[in-house]
């Protein structure tokens, strides 16, 4: 938006279109749109592969090379896709527009300037004005410029442009030769006098050209009536099919109908195969019938019957999943479909997991996570976890099993992989003699990065010692992932003392006599220092917790993880996989899921906060599960026992006391926080703006009242003049420093001449008169004889004093 003098436009008998203002407006809009869109586009480009320890393993070499090729191909497709082309074209257009504006740097948004129109200097003599008018009028006269071809006209411009310029020249000459209009222009920048200001949008001349009216109306109609509703309708039609977790609503309904509390893991492939996404993307095709039939015959012995086995599309996806879990080779005609099925499987399993957890199913939730582990590692149900190791087959599994069963056990080890890690590199090499040294190095690297977790917890009721029926129990589960690097920002709150030890000040107080005044004063001083240190620790703790971005939301998905995802060794899975951990709280007696939370920070230490209501009186047993969705044999479980006591009967209160308490609570809720002085009594920056506007309006109303009654002239103005006289040396010094910038701003950015008379009138008023501001503006015109915009503005004001 740009200011345009409304009076100048109304005084002329032709239309004025500001092309320069339009280009600046267009440039501003494009910058506001292109910069955030460019950031969004560039943030999706993965120029370098992320850090991944599996890239050092020979077992993942083929997979990593394929992923790298796909990453480069995806990068090129993004650069040359519609977003990439739009990014390049938009920045090209923006640069071209910027170059166009640099060419226009000597031009300015349209204002009526008769001196510039006649190509003379300001303050020119009447003779110079008359001479310039004759020269310009002869050059741009319509009789000499009647052709649309600029080459055939004397002014070298089209006839319409020449006619417009001729009108401007006539108006400029009339303004400068008439004393009244010239005085109005010198004072207000408008030959017709002061008419206020208007704010308009700079529009290009072609947009309001009569020859383009039909095309512009058609463009508006197509954009507003056709394109925008169509785009919004298509977006809504597509987005309304999906839930928040990215699963289609029809798919979630199918999952919901098939899942139950005791659904076993062997039924998960069939439930997953019923997803609508698979039926739409990879349906059965006639050219795949033979290969699909042969693949189905190889895996049909392991098939478990599901509800959707009568559907050919579901059977196809189910066959592909079984083939992958059994590590059966897939024909080339089905490999693309297999790639799509595996790429979408974990997203759909996450939707299935959400349904199980919302239904508070324990067995089904654990089985969904178990199937996710099997799918990541391409392993059949109840397979030995040692098959997850690189270069391992059944021969290596048997050799290790004999060694582990023969006495190489570690008392603390629970899974075969942990037992194998406890043996050490030397014993592993002695047992696995058929593997080469490079393969042993891969195994050592895998065992170094294989997850190892430790769980601790604390359950309590805030500000209460006993747990009573109906109390809100706060459970804090601390998970340490020992295979990850140390976290320098982590400080366990349990390690910080909340209460001072009685003997912590004994050394400082040893030289003083107990119970003396010096002893008590020194002790109080040390206590104050301890409190200050304690509050500082608590402040740093809150800042760390805020920086670590704790979980939020029902399922605990944080906005942004603290660290990058941890890669997973999954050589058979076609895509990159990362560790995902879920904490479950289970009521053993009812076998119901009490709470759940996802670890989302990818750090060595992480805490999960769960809140739940204490059940009825008695001893309640809970299980805390920590499950990984990518590896088998890592799941940990700890038991928690809580004693719940019967709620004590509260003292009965009268109705009047209860009503009084309710009134006090309502008053506390209605109380607003105390305003801050730097917000002028408000609580936010928005309230500060509103307070400034309210004070400005009140100030204007007060000024008008005092001025109309003569009180301003009699009391306030003398005081203001006295303050100005005292402060003038400082103001003149500052004014001389700011004078160059002020003159440049008033000359090149905004012309204040049309409003300056308001301020002149307030200082030139007769102190003994009681006339109002409007009367003095109407009757007293002496202030118009002085031009306030002179080079020595600040010096002149100093001379007056």
Q: What would you note in describing this structure?
A:
With 801 residues, this protein is an alpha+beta fold. The chain has 28 helices and 10 strands. It has helices spanning 6-11, 19-43, 61-79, 82-103, 114-117, 126-140, 159-177, 179-188, 213-239, 249-258, 268-273, 276-281, 289-299, 312-325, 332-358, 363-377, 394-405, 416-423, 425-431, 437-449, 506-509, 517-547, 655-670, 685-709, 711-748, 753-763, 773-779, 793-800; strands at 2-4, 198-200, 453-460, 467-468, 472-481, 581-587, 592-599, 605-613, 618-628, 636-645. Strand 9 and strand 10 form a beta hairpin. The longest helix has 38 residues, at 711-748.
* Percent range of helical residues: 40-55%
Largest sheet: 5 strands, mixed
Q: What is the terminal separation in angstroms?
A: 40 Å
Radius of gyration: 41 Å
In total, the number of strands is: 10
Strand order of the largest sheet: 4-10-9-6-7
Give the low-pLDDT segments. 1-16, 408-412, 493-497, 550-559, 750-801
Form type: extended
Structural class by helix and strand composition: alpha+beta
Core attributes:
28 helices, 5-stranded mixed β-sheet, disordered C terminus, alpha+beta, 3-stranded antiparallel β-sheet, single chain, 52% helix
How is this structure best summarized?
With 801 residues, this protein is of the alpha+beta class.
Q: Which secondary structure elements does this structure contain, and how are they paired or packed?
A:
Blueprint: E1 2-4, H1 6-11, H2 19-43, H3 61-79, H4 82-103, H5 114-117, H6 126-140, H7 159-177, H8 179-188, E2 198-200, H9 213-239, H10 249-258, H11 268-273, H12 276-281, H13 289-299, H14 312-325, H15 332-358, H16 363-377, H17 394-405, H18 416-423, H19 425-431, H20 437-449, E3 453-460, E4 467-468, E5 472-481, H21 506-509, H22 517-547, E6 581-587, E7 592-599, E8 605-613, E9 618-628, E10 636-645, H23 655-670, H24 685-709, H25 711-748, H26 753-763, H27 773-779, H28 793-800
């Amino acid at each position: 938006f740009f200011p345009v003098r409304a009076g100048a436009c109304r005084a002329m008998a032709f239309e004025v279109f500001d092309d320069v203002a339009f280009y600046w407006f267009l440039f501003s809009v494009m910058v506001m749109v292109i910069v955030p869109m460019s950031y969004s586009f560039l943030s999706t480009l993965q120029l370098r592969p992320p850090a991944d320890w599996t890239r050092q393993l020979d077992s993942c070499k083929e997979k990593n090379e394929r992923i790298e090729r796909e990453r480069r191909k995806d990068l090129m497709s993004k650069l040359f896709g519609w977003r990439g082309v739009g990014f390049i074209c938009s920045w090209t257009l923006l640069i071209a527009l910027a170059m166009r504006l640099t060419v226009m740097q000597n031009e300015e948004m349209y204002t009526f300037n008769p001196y510039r129109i006649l190509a003379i200097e300001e303050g020119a003599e009447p003779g110079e004005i008359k001479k310039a008018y004759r020269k310009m009028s002869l050059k741009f006269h319509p009789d000499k410029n009647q052709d649309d071809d600029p080459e055939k006209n004397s002014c070298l411009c089209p006839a319409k442009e020449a006619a417009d310029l001729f009108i401007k020249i006539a108006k400029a000459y009339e303004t400068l030769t008439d004393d009244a209009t010239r005085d109005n222009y010198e004072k207000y920048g408008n030959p017709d006098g002061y008419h206020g200001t208007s704010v308009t949008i700079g529009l290009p001349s072609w947009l309001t050209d009569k020859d383009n009216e039909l095309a512009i109306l058609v463009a508006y109609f197509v954009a507003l009536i056709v394109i925008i509703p169509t785009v919004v309708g298509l977006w809504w039609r597509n987005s309304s099919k999906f839930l928040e977790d990215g699963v289609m609503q029809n798919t979630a309904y199918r999952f919901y109908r098939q899942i139950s509390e005791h659904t076993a893991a062997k039924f998960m492939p069939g439930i997953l195969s019923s997803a609508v996404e698979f039926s739409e993307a990879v349906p059965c095709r006639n050219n795949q019938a033979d290969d699909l039939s042969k693949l189905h015959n190889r895996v049909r012995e392991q098939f478990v019957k599901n509800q959707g086995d009568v559907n050919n599309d579901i059977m196809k996806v189910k066959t592909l999943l079984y083939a992958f879990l059994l590590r059966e080779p897939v024909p080339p005609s089905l490999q693309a479909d297999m790639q799509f099925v595996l790429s979408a499987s974990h997203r759909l399993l996450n939707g299935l997991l959400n349904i199980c957890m919302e239904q508070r199913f324990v067995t089904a939730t654990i089985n969904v996570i178990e199937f996710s582990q099997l799918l990541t590692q391409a392993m059949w149900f109840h397979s030995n976890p040692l098959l997850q190791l690189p270069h391992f087959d059944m021969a290596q599994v048997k050799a290790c099993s004999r060694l582990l069963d023969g006495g190489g056990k570690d008392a603390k080890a629970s899974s075969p992989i942990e037992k194998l890690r406890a043996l050490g590199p030397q014993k592993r090499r002695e047992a696995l003699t058929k593997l080469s040294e490079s393969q042993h190095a891969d195994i050592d690297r895998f065992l170094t990065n294989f997850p190892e977790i430790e769980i601790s917890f604390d359950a309590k009721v805030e500000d209460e010692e006993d747990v009573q029926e109906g109390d809100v129990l706060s459970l804090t589960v601390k998970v340490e992932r020992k295979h990850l690097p140390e976290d320098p920002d982590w400080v366990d709150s349990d390690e910080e003392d909340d209460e001072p030890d009685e003997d912590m000040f004994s050394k400082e107080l040893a030289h003083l006599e107990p119970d003396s005044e010096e002893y008590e004063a020194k002790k109080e001083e040390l206590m104050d220092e301890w409190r200050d240190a304690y509050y500082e620790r608590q402040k740093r703790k809150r800042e760390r917790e805020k920086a670590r971005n704790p979980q939020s939301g029902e399922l605990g998905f944080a906005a942004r993880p603290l660290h990058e995802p941890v890669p997973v060794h999954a050589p058979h899975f076609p895509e990159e996989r990362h560790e995902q951990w879920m904490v479950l709280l289970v009521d053993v007696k009812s076998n119901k899921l009490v709470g759940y939370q996802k670890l989302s920070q990818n750090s060595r230490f992480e805490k999960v906060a769960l809140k739940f209501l204490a059940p009825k009186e008695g001893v309640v047993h809970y299980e805390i599960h920590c499950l990984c969705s990518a590896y088998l044999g890592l799941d940990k479980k700890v038991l928690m026992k809580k004693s719940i006591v019967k709620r004590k009967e509260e003292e009965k209160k009268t109705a009047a006391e209860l009503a009084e308490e309710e009134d006090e609570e309502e008053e506390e809720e209605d109380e607003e926080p105390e305003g801050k002085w730097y917000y002028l009594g408000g609580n936010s920056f928005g309230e500060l703006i509103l307070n400034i506007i309210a004070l400005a309006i009140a100030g204007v109303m007060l000024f008008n009242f005092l001025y109309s009654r003569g009180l301003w002239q009699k009391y306030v103005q003398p005081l203001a003049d006295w303050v100005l006289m005292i402060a003038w040396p400082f103001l003149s010094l500052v004014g001389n420093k700011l004078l160059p910038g002020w003159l440049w701003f008033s000359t090149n950015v905004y012309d204040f001449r049309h409003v300056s008379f308001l301020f002149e009138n307030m200082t030139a008023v007769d102190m003994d008169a009681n006339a109002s501001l409007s009367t003095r503006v109407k009757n007293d015109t002496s202030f118009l004889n002085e031009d306030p915009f002179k080079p020595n503005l600040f010096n002149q004001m100093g001379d007056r004093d």
